[in-house]
């Protein structure tokens, strides 16, 4: 038996081209005669557009055209919102590709310039004279929901786009009324900038003879882009081809269909020449979706002996100037349903209010709703521990759901698939040396040093998800995936998938699944994705769903092929199918091991079809549509140890321990990579990242000089551990791991810092925990 | 990220650079401050005169004091044994600028001409009494670092004048340090403190102190210096200096929304203590 490829930490096959700069991104694709698009963007967060004078711009060298929303007219329909939350009184204000009469955030497109050169396009964009009448702006979602706030859309009364409160309020109120202790906190989930390494880009080419449009763009879900571009341009969906070439990260920001993609498409159709737009980093920070932006009023009820009884929250979720593609689903379905977490909490209540503001539109950002839920839950558990003067670890241990293997119903209405939360919890505590730490902490404090520990137990819902559920919660699509495993006559494999990985390492891990199932060497398997014409339908890569959903489709398709191979091999060896044994890519007849057919031999014979069993079709290719029967629920425990310098307020993250359970690990190195990146992103929310707007809605953190991206030297070596609890409903048992790090790490680091500051009397600080804020809180507590 | 149109010329000599610069021109050294502002369209010079190829502007010589050419890079200064010996604080400050790529490209002349208040080298230059050497169409002149830095992004430099280099006194008998509290986003200084202490036995004969980052320009701190000079650098003297330094910079405070003036002012006291510890440790 050779080493199993499944479970082995082979190197990511995509890395050589990524690391050497040979990968081809949208901006790398050059077409002859291409025009470059620059967008004139509103410098005001909220302003009426009084007039637009493009005459000077049009007269400039190389400028082909300047267009405004008037020129587009009904040539482009508004951009749709595709997650229509039921029973929420949802309003979907029009989102035109270029602002009509009014700009609603800084960066809102007002006009486009098309020129033969990117520099000239920008010069001409600067020469377009727009007269604005500035209006009062509002950025804070809670303020925007108050009476008298500036109205952003005439048809969204009070700026309230939706109000979602699906749980039983009376029952929740009763639990809180009867509880021994109730703790509360106002939590700010600050806005974050997804900052994918590659900014967005789009290039469209239209062939008037065939009426076909090809759009290359930075997409996590080319089939969804095809659907939306077809809808806004009016072209039939089979005349639209969307290609996502190499995509340099997304973190959710490349799910939505933005005005820019629609505009290059429209202009390419209108002018009959290819049109290209590439975002600058400054534009990326202004116009590509932001994440989070909640103001939460949270309460938790508990009994005196430390039983967690209930959670309730009112959440003001900032939507920005328009409702982005999936925006309404984030602070609702992906948030409120997570309030139970890994605990035996029987009562939850969430009222989530989606509020239009004059900020950049928000949408899914790594974790999408679940980090915001996990944070509030873990924060409140620590607050209960403090109120009861109980060790926070003891409190968690007391309330963890016991191990279960096949289904556990929780108050949110979800059925968790499988879990052993206590096992992961105890393992992480062992790794951290929790009890020793408390002694070290006391010793340090005696010397005037402030150490702290944060412990987060989490579970999350991913691998989105059963399509029936998608429909029930208003998602305007399915959530299945499809895949084709195609073997060439010479025994090389192309796996065509509808999902669209963009840096995760799926080309490696999905190949490992096929190799495991079918016995082809992993080097002989290519995973093809990102082209609506080349690949079968799929709903995209997000929500930690590609490995669980596409992986399952591939496993099933591979198993069908293997069955075909077994029958064909039996036929070729003139044996009974029942007597065929399979090992390591080779079929042999029981009792005569020297007679064998390799999977490659069988593939060739299936293609030649010279000698097929009765009724078997030629070829060696199988497809599978896979709709998951349930979500998957990875879980684990993360622990952070920090030291706070009380003199400056600086935080040093000294240790970070992460025990995650994503079921069987296809490739532990890829899993570790996902956890490392996720932890860094989540910890950065606690420590340093945060959008700051001025009162009038100007983005003050518009460059990386001001917006603090995490840096490698801020982090210790992560100490990773795992437990393995397979998902019972999944063909290979795997769960998603793309977002767990982000979901668990923010509260872990935050709680560690607040633990360190507890002796100084500091109880709460809004994120991010900059040294200035920490120092300020220490001074305030002292005086 | 798309600068306006400009012309580019590479000068072979100082005279050529001065003749090419014109009214709307800018000298281009490492480009690490100029090009970003051009890409953001905050600056739109019509002419760039690249001074990177002028040999006479580059290099470090030690003859009693130090002379450093304007286009000498931060990396070269940080690595120079002469600078380490004669002005350890400057070597340290240049070694803390940005990251390695920035230090390999960025030049000392460009750094001081740009006069970003959060820069590192100016603080040491002001503390250690450096002189800036300048050449214009009408001849050359020298100005003390303290007078060179006027305000936020503002220097004594006239349009079209070129910094040829700077001179520093030999400070090898001083204990000199630069300590920086980096902004977590940009890694520029939230506060940078330079101290240069001349010790006579256990007594501090002379103290030079400057603060940057927290201020619109590098500021010489007479109050802190007075508190240290003549003392044995005992706790009381250091505490007095840490208090005095906050007053010294009181008229020049700068801050941003994340790290406000009041915080930076307090941190100047903390980092003065740390700078003294680094210098004497
Ligand atoms: C990512 C990054 C991080 C950085 N971090 C830091 C930091 O931590 N600390 C710090 O101090 N700096 C930092 N810098 C700035 C860096 O030190 C710059 O290199 C320096 O400020 C400018 O030097 P330059 O040679 O690149 O000048 P340029 O960008 O070429 O020029 C800057 C300005 O000076 C003028 N100029 C240049 N040379 C002369 C001359 N000889 N005479 C007259 N005028 C001249 C130019 O016309 C221009 O106006 C950082 C820069 C970057 C890009």
Helix/strand layout:
The complex is a heterodimer of chains A (783) and B (281).
Chain A: H1 15-19, E1 35-41, E2 47-53, H2 55-58, E3 63-68, H3 69-72, E4 102-103, E5 109-115, H4 118-127, E6 129-134, H5 141-144, E7 160-164, H6 169-178, E8 181-192, E9 201-207, E10 212-217, H7 222-233, E11 240-243, H8 259-271, E12 275-278, H9 281-287, E13 291-302, E14 308-320, H10 333-336, E15 347-356, H11 370-388, H12 392-399, E16 408-409, E17 415-416, H13 421-432, H14 434-446, E18 450-459, H15 467-472, E19 481-487, E20 493-497, H16 506-518, E21 525-528, H17 546-572, E22 580-583, E23 586-589, E24 592-598, H18 599-608, E25 621-626, E26 635-645, E27 650-661, H19 668-687, E28 718-722, H20 740-757, H21 771-782
Parallel strand pairs in A: 1-12, 10-11, 14-15, 20-21, 27-28
Antiparallel strand pairs in A: 1-5, 2-4, 2-6, 3-5, 7-15, 8-13, 9-10, 9-12, 13-14, 16-17, 18-26, 19-20, 19-25, 22-23, 23-24, 26-27
Chain B: E1 7-10, H1 14-20, E2 25-28, H2 34-39, E3 47-50, E4 60-63, E5 65-69, H3 74-79, H4 81-86, H5 88-95, H6 100-105, H7 108-114, H8 121-127, E6 131-136, E7 139-144, H9 145-148, E8 149-151, E9 154-155, E10 162-168, E11 174-182, E12 189-200, E13 203-212, E14 219-220, H10 222-228, H11 235-248, H12 261-280
Helix pairs in contact in B: 10-11, 11-12
The structure holds flavin-adenine dinucleotide.
Flavin-adenine dinucleotide is lined by residues 26-34, 51, 70, 74, 97-98, 102, 105-107, 109-111, 113-114, 116, 119-121, 162-163, 187-188 of chain B.
